[in-house]
Structure prediction request, 1015 residues.
Amino acid sequence: MAFDNQQRLKDHFHETMIFNQRTLIAGVIMFLLLILLLSRLVYLQITNQQHYATLSDNNRVSIRPIPPTRGLIFDRNGVLLAQNLPSFTLEIVPEHVENLDKTLATLKQLISISDEDLKRFHKNRRKKRRFEGVPLRFRLNEEEVARISVQQDQLDGVLIKAQLSRHYPQGKLASHAVGYVSRINENELQKLNASNYSATTHIGKVGIERTYETLLHGSVGFQHVETNAQGRVLRVLDRTLPISGKNLFLNLDSKVQAIAEQSLADNNGALVAIDPRDGSVLAMVSVPVYDPNLFVHGISSVDYKALSTSPERPLFNRALRGQYPPGSTVKPFLGLAGLELNLLQQHHELDCPGWYMIKSDERRYRDWKKEGHADTDLFKAITESCDVFFYDLSVTLGIDNMSSYLAKFGLGQKTGIDIRGELAGLNPSREWKRRNRNLPWFPGETLITGIGQGFMLTTPIQLASATAAIAMMGERYKPRMLYGIQDEQKSPIIKTQAKPLKAVPVSDEKNWRYVIDAMKNVVHGLHGTARGIKYNLKYPIAGKTGTAQVFGIAQDAEYKKEEIAKKLQDHALFIGYAPFDDPKIAVALIVENGGSGGAVAAPIVRKVMDEYLLKLDKNPVKNVLENSGETAQ
Amino acid sequence: MNWQSDSSSTNFREENRLSAGRRLFYRFHIDLPLWIGIILLSAMGMVVLYSAGDKSVELLNRQFVRLFIAFIVMLAVAQINPSTLKHWAPWMYGIGLLMLIAVLLLGEVGKGAQRWLNLGLFRFQPSELMKIAVPIMVAWYLAEAPLPPRRGRLFIAAIMVIVPTLLIAKQPDLGTSVLIASSGFFVLLLAGLGWKLIFSVTALMAASAPIFWNYLLHDYQRQRILTFINPETDPLGSGYHIIQSTIAIGSGGLYGKGWLNGTQAHLDFLPERSTDFVFAVFSEEFGFLGTLVLLALYIAVISRGIVIAVNAQDTFSRLVAGSLTLTFFVYVFVNIGMVSGILPVVGLPLPLISYGGTSMVTIMAAFGILMSIQTHRRLVSA
Prediction:
């Protein structure tokens, strides 16, 4: 036993030795591993703390843009033309809905939900996270909002979201001038300042809305928000408020605009009224008009097809882009050219037999009056619009003098008005024909240019601007839509400055007086072509009628065959300004296929001038408002 | 060595050397230093869990109940004499092995792995039993013969470790199989396994790594290892855990973001934040200094375990105490290592802190065994 005990004790001692040795080694290894862990922690928490703190902040803080409120648009009298209204969108937050089918069924009983709405809803639902609202219906009316609000307790997860959307309270009034906003498209997205537009969905597409997009839009605001891993916003850390767009006041007088639109309602055509003293555009009408509100929420394909394929071309801004032969309205300018260039004497008379011939040509160039005007000087030729006198004058002047003098009035050039898309028209010359047609200029072409036909094309804005120049004895101003800019409601309106253009040189004022006296005689003279409008006139008007022949159908080739007959009727034109001795308004009007300028166009211009100068109609704008309300339903 | 000459067969003499308070604990077989360490760690765990669980009182209640049960288990185990435990060793091991086979054949599937055995009243995870049974079994077997063990014995002991390890790896539960393999290995190591053998086996394992990779690992396990090597390859997928937890730890800095102020944790960026990744919450909120305190507590508990092992009176107790203590260290090291991104993600909780039941009971049972070894000491009887 003793031996055995000894053996065991020895073993025991040995085993303890081994165990303690091994434990020591294990301890050392554990110690080294702990050092490893600690150095990792030092590396993470002390050496790189800054780096990881940044990552952690990036994790939780994200920047959300806040859209700025778009500036309002007013006319010169403060009548609202474009505003922002809350529009209601119905959204569903899937996370808060217990039974989606049941909720949808309940909603269907309360408001109309189309299959298209449902399809879009289910498509969007897959893209969004569970706590995000998925839109189901847009543009709820107040009744629908009320119905849903009453049932709200049964509709968990159903939200009505209000956001601002563009609204044009005057409806179709001045739609071509004001333009409209619509959803930003791919093309625009690439050109935009992405950051400033990060919260914006709509952008000005045409008209003032487009030209002054930068002013109207404003600057985006930002808020730093804390989000969790799913992106849910938990709280706002700080925010930079957006800067609203500027309010714009237009030179437009909506009463004048309304009268003009109403007077032209049955026709296609365009009217531009300008204050000759500074170029302010008082009215810019292109009929037919359209309702810009249709475009804001995305126009339906049916509506768009109707607008874009209509032979009346309601989306076409005739005031800036319609290029028409000026017809006889060009005559006062050419008469002035003859006098100013000393190629024509005021008393020079010509016997008008009703036709005119030139040596190189067998053709008879006819006067509009078959029997002729008998003895005619320039005064009579303008008053009665004698063609033969101007055939002769143009032969005297020659095409080079004619085109260079007409160019001084801005004909055949863009006026530079602050709405995009203006066309230049055409003031033909020898040079132009050689370059563009590769043909020499024929003498006969000079003749027809003398009565505003042939190659010559002008836009209504050009004619109005040229008329203003004649009223101002050569002084010219760039036509301006913008009256002033307002930073915010109630702050002062900063007016825009008139921009003088190169004046038409005056060699002898008597020549001008002579021509404008003749234009006055057009309205007030016994034989004036617009004498029909002089009755009860409270102020004198100077003007000129025009009746432009429509030679072909090239310009609007898509007109249908059965319409060609109407299409071939003459365009009726009238240019004029008033009051004669203190010009405040200059107007150019074209009524497409309207017939005679004196009978059709002049009366409309008088109505417009009456409204502007006498303010007869107390509230035409209000009427328009009510009308637009009805059409929007 | 003075007390050894006394002939008292009880541990009264030992108790006499202790203060009155500690004597009381001794009577209930509680080791006071270990007890204090465990209590402090559990308390810290509750504090972190309150934050990690988004101030959920319910979660705290459940954790408290689990801790309570685990403490009862620990006390119960502490009452069992180590020699009794030694007698139970083959039975525990045998039953555990049978249950592991049963799990593979008819176990319940949860989270893509087959780990549970439905015993009617409750679900049981046999691998948890094996965490204790394997070291006890190997220690019993090796303590039968003089140490260091001979080759034949070593071979059989190795089989005893490898069989349950493979069965658990097959479930698949990589974390637990690593723990069981290491607990068995620790017994062999402490018993005096030759260095030559250790190195040659290590070399063999390294050589067989490709086979292991190709045939024994599940896809998700392979993915975890790949992700560990370069988390950025899949920042939103399997790399997400590691990236977010290193951000949490790193952004905590020296002083931390403060209790309940961890943004990574509270804004849901951190996954598994009350269970396996609770250390990241702790580091984010309490910083490097807090982490030092936590590690110090773990070191204290482990040191006490080593002291108990060194003071143990027989080979079996020594081996068991040493192995259990070292395994506890593996728990802590592997968890913190994986959360801080120096080890691949294997699903191991942070002992005494992580929310969760089964493994906590096992860990506390192991502490119970340590306490039993410490408090059942008496003079060597022939």
